[in-house]
Write a structure and sequence with these properties.
The chain is α/β, with parallel strands linked by helices. It contains 13 helices and eight strands. It has an eight-stranded parallel β-barrel, surrounded by six helices. Strand 4, helix 5 and strand 5 form a beta-alpha-beta unit. Helix 11 crosses helix 12 and helix 11 crosses helix 13. The chain is globular.
């Protein structure tokens, strides 16, 4: 079962997630440089605070709590140390490090965490991709997560899922699994929605053996739109699709891969033409 990551600082939503198997709640403390990097994109810019970590942890009984901290600052490791200590004190089960570019940054971060919680490196820069083999054996890593929003920008792509088409996600998946690490990537819309439909994205997760994906804001839409499937119903639809995709023949898996990659190529070309 793929972990479904829900980014929230709302205890009510966290509690609803906690009632379902295979959910992970995600508090996002990253601020430094994010708004500038993703300017003009329809992406989530968090307003979460350190106090939210403890508030969310308090309602969870079975779901793990992951906290994304700010990028490591080699010129100011004390700031990273203070943030890690605060996150651990508030009860984080996993800590995600964003925007690193080389092994030394991740290794320094791991030394600060010192095995007190599993680390999830967020691979979202060309530098991190280029140096994958140099940092993948860093002690304390639990899971490698590929962040497509920033990675596609770092690679000069026009469409978020182009790194999948280019084979980069396949490479990371194989390297992580070869070391016995969990692997996940990107975000996913409801099954029949999205420029790249959620069902097609899920098919790639199942093909690659992914263990984690971030649920898009479309899953929360029922709270403001009458007649929509509830959050729980939308998640249930995803789980049915996940089960069915896991039962495909190898021939069907390959046909679905080709279909999805052709669609990504078309969307990428359209994005370039519109630029």
């Amino acid at each position: 079962m793929i972990d479904l990551l829900t980014i929230t600082n709302l205890p009510e939503l966290a509690d609803r997630c906690d009632q379902m198997p295979g959910m992970r709640v995600f508090v996002d403390l990253e601020r430094n440089g994010k708004a500038a990097r993703q300017h003009g994109l329809d992406t989530f810019i968090s307003t979460h605070s350190m106090d939210d970590v403890g508030r969310i942890k308090a309602v969870l009984k079975q779901s793990r709590l992951m906290v994304r901290v700010n990028p490591y600052q080699a010129h100011n490791p004390q700031a990273c140390q203070a943030e890690v200590e605060a996150v651990l004190a508030q009860g984080a089960d996993l800590i995600m490090l964003p925007m690193f570019t080389q092994a030394q940054e991740l290794q320094a971060f791991a030394a600060i965490v010192a095995g007190r919680a599993p680390i999830v490196p967020l691979l979202e820069t060309a530098g991190a991709l280029d140096t994958l083999e140099a940092w993948l054996d860093t002690p304390g890593i639990d899971e490698v997560f590929v962040g497509l929003n920033d990675l596609h920008l770092s690679l000069g792509c026009r469409f978020m899922f182009e790194p999948l088409l280019m084979g980069h996600v396949d490479r990371v998946a194989a390297a992580a699994k070869g070391r016995g690490l969990r692997f996940g990537f990107g975000g996913i819309a409801r099954m029949d929605e999205g420029m790249l439909p959620g069902h097609d994205v899920l098919a790639e997760h199942v093909r690659l053996g992914s263990r984690a994906v971030i649920l898009s804001r479309t899953f929360n839409r029922a709270d403001t739109h009458a007649g929509e499937k509830s959050f729980e119903q939308a998640v249930a639809s995803l789980r049915v699709a996940e089960r069915d995709l896991g039962q495909r023949s190898q021939e069907r898996v390959e046909k679905d891969r080709l279909h999805t990659h052709e669609l990504i190529a078309e969307l990428a070309e359209a994005a370039k033409a519109a630029a």
